[in-house]
Write a structure and sequence with these properties.
23 strands; 15% strand; Rossmann fold; alpha/beta; five-stranded parallel β-sheet; 42% helix; 3 domains; elongated; seven-stranded parallel β-sheet; 25 helices
Length: 687
């Protein structure tokens, strides 16, 4: 059999595995895999530098399937290429990543062939995709990371990070706003290592794109400063290879390849939306389609002789040779540049360098205090110097978020200076969060920052960060009504409750400058959870830790900050986070003077507190003390779990208003006198 015949046989194997898997599951999307099988086959077996025997080798090219509903494309090539599984400790398991049995159980519980690509669950998946646009936006972060890594670690001609990123997307991806944000950023940065391949099939769920999407995509991306190429026939693997070759030669611009295709190409019978979006072909159509391919009509999940071997002599041999050469280069590199080699190894394992937390500030007691964002800025500047691969920036708010790294040599990440550590994401919160995910997937320790209210714009990517268990860091300032006159459009109310509801995300709202330091200590040590840091705009008193509990209690989510004098048990408990901690402390002093023994609990993180032992949680919040008041300038939703049926929440039931902060605090009850009054009423009711 000739190579050309083996190519076509392999392409049709991808198609028929996809058809059979969707048919068996009675769920899924067969049309796009049928149309894009030639593209994905060409990328994997002809182009990409990827070793199936070691799918996490740092020098590999990255493949992102942004139109994740076509996941059978990925499961097919992972299976046919013999990609091996890796565990969470980065150990090769000696077993396939995706077996034929997994494909036979496509979309079923426990199968390594789920409905959409899932990072961590299946080796060979570079990022979780499904929500359209997220994959391509994440790929921009991957491309940014590659440029930064190459700039820092390429020495004396040894190029360890010269890989490329390929992202396949469709009409839906390009309609989503996050893709537009990300494409604009990528064009500005001139990410020549990035190639998006657009499946231009002109079909979405509701029908032809003529009803919604009639723009000139090529002109749009040209305006973004991308190199735009076109392949008029998605079945022409030679044209596909030629376009990819042009991408690899292009300098100073990312590349968009517009691939003209039809849903269900390869089937003479199906060119409709059903085949694209969640409907199996049906048994009769499956037979007719296979007949059109010259395939045995009654064979299911057939992998003909020679197909796996063809992948072994293609991507298998090419990838093994490339990885071997990389390993030899890294061995030379380790001898000549041992300190840099150690950095690479630590970053790849998501470890921190020795002394990563040295010189973190310790703030003296100060009634005037420091804003959370200001304390954060000081901490970020220390961490960025101690952790070389700690990098990040803001969505056009660096001076307000206080996230600008100002130490000598920090620099800006720009087209002419890819080694800079200050990233200017522009006013693109959603793309920023997705790019942060892409950088974390590339083993940097990235952060992105904006006002807390605009976490709404970033939330879908934050959710994916939690789903993928990435140690990303999102720094949110202006956490409550501190904006004052800016009014309710800039005052977060329900955002804390929303993020606290997200599984796998650590939300931290520190109450003073030293709690900010400890919050960052928690965030940096996290290897598999993202963190949302929620910080104040206005100054908060720096608490006197000689009289109060140490701020290290932040690591446990909540801790007893102040208790009644002596060994007396408390009559009531005041619980607070962030800027309201100091209000609770002042109320505590007044209550003590009035003969009520109160306890103050600082609770910067519900998530961390819930991870503690029952004994610890009971010690902090004794069940016998039912008189409880929670104080927080946010939605009261959820606080009932801590105050109980007899407690009360001094929180927000409405949106905010436009006025100076002091007036807002008085109007909405965030004053010491009101907290004292509420506490007394709760205590009286519980007595």
């Amino acid at each position: 059999m000739t190579d050309a015949e083996l190519d076509l046989l392999s392409i049709n194997t991808i198609r028929t595995l996809s058809i059979d898997a969707v048919q068996a599951a009675n769920s899924g999307h067969p049309g796009t895999p049928m149309a894009l099988a030639p593209l994905v086959y060409t990328l994997w077996n002809k182009v990409m530098r990827f070793d199936p025997q070691d799918p996490i080798w740092p020098g590999r090219d990255r493949f992102v399937l942004s139109n994740g509903h076509a996941s059978m494309l990925l499961w097919s090539v992972l299976h046919l290429s013999g990609t091996m599984a890796v565990n969470a400790e980065y150990e090769l398991l000696g077993a396939p990543s995706v077996t034929l049995d997994d494909i036979k159980r496509f979309r079923q519980f426990g199968s390594k062939a789920p409905g959409h690509p899932e990072y961590h669950w299946v080796s060979g998946v570079e990022t979780t995709t499904g929500p359209l646009g997220q994959g391509v936006a994440t790929s921009v972060g991957m491309a940014m990371a590659q440029r930064w890594l190459a700039n820092r670690y390429h020495q004396d001609g040894i190029a360890l990070f010269d890989y490329r990123i390929y992202a396949v997307c469709g009409d839906g991806c390009l309609m989503e706003g996050v893709a537009s944000e990300a494409a604009s950023l990528a064009g500005h940065l001139g990410l020549e290592n990035l190639c998006w391949i657009y499946d231009n099939n002109q079909i979405t769920i509701e029908g032809s794109t003529r009803i919604t999407f009639t723009e000139d995509v090529a002109m749009r991306f040209s305006a973004y400063h991308w190199n735009v190429l076109r392949v008029s026939d998605a079945n022409d693997t030679g044209m596909i290879e030629e376009a990819i070759s042009t991408f690899r030669k292009t300098r100073g611009r990312p590349t968009l390849i517009i691939l003209d295709s039809h849903i269900g190409w390869g089937s003479p019978h199906r060119h409709d939306t059903a085949a694209a979006h969640g409907e199996p072909l049906g048994e009769e159509e499956v037979r007719l389609t296979k007949r059109g391919y010259g395939w045995p009509e009654d064979a299911s999940f057939l992998v003909p002789d020679g197909v796996r071997e063809h992948f072994q002599t293609g991507i298998g041999a090419r990838g093994a040779a490339a990885r071997s050469a990389w390993n030899q280069a890294f061995a030379r590199y380790r001898t000549r540049f041992p300190a840099l080699a150690l950095e690479i190894e630590q970053a790849q394992r998501r470890e921190l360098p020795s002394g990563w937390d040295r010189n973190l500030p310790v703030f003296p007691a100060d009634a005037k205090g420091l804003a959370g964002r200001d304390a954060s800025g000081q901490v970020l500047n220390v961490l960025a110097q101690n952790v070389p691969w700690f990098i990040g920036g803001s969505a056009d708010l660096g001076s307000s978020n206080k996230t600008t790294l100002k130490y000598a040599g920090a620099g800006d990440f720009e087209p002419a200076s890819p080694g800079g550590k200050n990233i200017h994401f522009g006013i693109r919160e959603h793309a920023m969060a997705a790019a942060v995910n892409g950088m974390a997937l590339s083993k940097l320790r990235p952060f992105g920052a904006t006002f807390f209210i605009f976490s709404d714009y970033a939330r879908p990517a934050i959710r994916l960060s939690a789903l993928m268990e990435l140690p990303t860091l999102f720094v949110f300032t202006h956490d409550a009504m501190g904006d004052g006159e800016d009014g309710p459009t800039h005052q977060p109310i329900e955002q804390l409750a929303s993020l606290r509801a997200m599984p796998g995300l650590t939300v931290l709202r520190p109450g003073d400058a030293n709690e900010v330091v400890e919050a960052y200590r928690v965030a940096l040590q996290s290897q598999h959870r993202p963190t949302a840091m929620v910080l104040s705009r206005q100054p908060l008193p720096t608490l006197d830790r000689s009289r109060l509990a140490p701020a290290s209690g932040v690591a446990r989510g909540a801790y007893v900050l102040a208790d009644p004098p002596g060994d007396a048990a408390p009559d009531l408990i005041l619980i607070a986070s962030g800027s309201e901690v100091s209000v609770a402390l002042q109320a505590h002093e007044q209550l003590l003077a009035q003969g009520l023994r109160s306890r103050v609990v600082s609770m910067p993180s519900w998530d961390l507190f819930e991870q503690q032992t029952p004994a610890y949680r009971t010690a902090v919040l004794p069940p016998s003390v039912t008189a409880r008041v929670a104080v927080e300038q946010a939605s009261a939703f959820g606080w009932e779990r801590y105050v109980g049926s007899l407690g009360k929440v001094v929180g927000m039931q409405t949106f905010g208003a436009s006025a100076p902060l002091a007036e807002l605090q008085k109007a909405f009850g965030f004053t010491v006198d009101n907290v004292v009054a509420v506490a007394r009423s709760v205590h009286q009711a519980a007595a």
